[in-house]
Amino acid sequence: MNQSVRKYLLVSLFSVAGLNIHAQRSCGFQEYAVERLKKNPSLYHERLINFAEQNETLRTDSVSGAEPPVIQIPVVVHVLYHFPYEKLSDSYIMRQIEILNECFRRKNADTVNTPQYFRPLAADCRIEFHLAKSDPRRRSTQGIVRKYTPVKYWNNDDKMKFSASMGSDAWDSKSYLNIWVCNLERTAGYSSLPGDHPALDGIVIDMEAFGLTGLNNGYDLGKTLVHEAGHWLGLKHIWGDRYCGDDDVQDTPKQSGYTVGCPTGIRVSCGNAPYGDMYMNYMDLTHDACVNLFTKGQMEKMRSLFTPGGLRSSLLQSKGLEPPLYSEIPLPEEDPKWLYPQLFPNPAYDVIHLDLTYDSRWTGKTIQLINSNGRLLSLIPVRSSLVSFSVKHLPAGVYFLRSRKEDGETLQIRFVKQ
Ligand SMILES: [Zn+2]
User: Fold this and answer.
1) For residue 328, what are the contacts with CB-CB under 8 A and spacing of at least 6?
2) What does the DSSP 8-state code read for residue 340?
3) Which has fewest Cβ within 10 Å: 93, 154, 232, 332?
4) Ligand 1 centroid distance, CA of 410 (Å)
5) Is 228 a catalytic site residue?
């Protein structure tokens, strides 16, 4: 089974009666949150929930009918590409950000699918996301960082958030929402918890769930980012991550578990009659085409993070959307000189050089020198990204260099000694 199929297959923790197996958005938020909370128990839930409850004054002013201000969040998208087709274009990324805003502002056309009985609960969250105009040093930017990485698949272990592990370092998360787009091996995405370590703060999203992918797998309309942005703003899954669990939001009905596929009609669980599960909520796992609302309660919870002292309030002081102070033209984004090992000269006479700059993980490995009969002649240690060795003593003929590293990549290069 290939990667893309596996990531979106149902792995059911909750038994949902009467449903066939559908592809399912595999959100890694809960699993990640549990791990982070083990490491730092004071991190999240209590602090966040208490804060939200104390900030009644900051809730939507429903009495006077005044609209709360629109919150604008500067965004930087880090595109970690390995294959050239993963180097997403500006327009592709911009369309995904538009979709995010349409959903948060309740301007998406599919809000007409919100059932009548839930419409009074549906909210325009008045939260918007915009690609940054100034980088952390106030230089001009488009809010997009594209970076080649030798890493082909990533786990939910935050390595993509650090240059040192061949990812891309976060921009100051007090001032920017960092979104890392990369090839996630197991899940469609995950978000950090509000209040977590600044270097880890942000959303990680699988290349195959970001934007209008055209993959026709149920998660190809850009709503995974909407879901993860909900987590980033303090929302839990609508089923509370356990049977009839609580998401700490007043106006979302309890429901037995997550939803798969794209159901229709009323589905009652956990005594939530007459209207049943709110499976069209962005914080369920329903297909992209079938999610279309945040509730007012969810909006209030998210917006409470921006009140004075709130875990996201620093974003309101960000200069990320202000014009840059330095309009120097950023360096063009260049692919690495090559994406593969380079051997030269070939044919060789005395010394041969093998350049492994494209992937520092070769350092420390050993390369086998093999002749055309398959006989191992010597072992060459890789002490740095450029390996040079003498072939003077070799009889003229064809030779091979062979090695392998942890991620399964093998090296096999043929050269000729003259
Ligand atoms: Zn989730």
Assistant:
1) 139, 140
2) S
3) 332
4) 36
5) yes
- Its pTM stands at 0.80
How many Cα atoms sit within 13 Å of 260 on the Cβ side? 18
Among the listed residues 228, 300, 333, 406, the single catalytic one is 228
Residue with tokens 């730092």: 40
For residue 139, give the 3-state DSSP assignment.
strand
Choose the CATH number for 3-317 among 3.30.950.10, 3.40.390.10, 1.10.230.10, 3.40.50.300.
3.40.390.10
Assigned architecture for domain 342-417: Sandwich (2.60)
- CA 235 to ligand 1 center in whole angstroms: 9
Q: 63 pLDDT exceeds 60?
A: no
State the amino acid at position 135 in one-letter form: D
Cα(231) to ligand 1 centroid in Å equals 7
**Angle separating helix axes 90-104 and 223-232, nearest 10 degrees:** 60
Lowest mean pLDDT among 59-63, 248-252, 347-351: 59-63
**Statement: residue 45 has pLDDT above 70:** no
